[in-house]
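Long-time lurker. I teach an intro course on protein structure, and each term I like to show students one example going from raw sequence to a predicted 3D structure in token notation. This year I'd like something fresh instead of my usual example. Would anyone be willing to generate the tokens for the chain below so I can use it in lecture? Attribution to the forum is fine with me.
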Amino acid sequence: MKTTQVNEKNFADTIKQGTVLLDFWASWCGPCRAFAPVFEAAAQKHPDVVFGKIDVEAEPGLAAAFEVRAIPTLVVVRDGVLLSSQAGALSAGGLEDLLRKVAALDMGEVRRSIESKAQAEAPAAAPGGV
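-- Reply from a regular --
Happy to contribute to a lecture. Here you go:
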């Protein structure tokens, strides 16, 4: 599968597509250019995964929403749930390891963990219903 250019218009639909890797990059970034062939090769090898590229120059809103402070930054989303965000170029082996770990996740357990954490962090209701 080829990589997909992701922008604000197609972002919401893109992240609903199972496992999604988003590469935040810029044309002037040397490490981004070095990581691009690794990302492209993985996209060819894993047609069941969406490999999206987000140009931070063209999509500053998406970069800001993900608090991208350095590029390249790789964001992993599965079934609409943000799982990971890490700056720096990965090796081909590192990217394969990441894909294996994401595929092995029990998303039901991930969702239960998120819900449990949210409930624990929610302020307790005030007694007396006010």
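Some talking points for your students: The mean pLDDT is 92. The radius of gyration is 17 Å.
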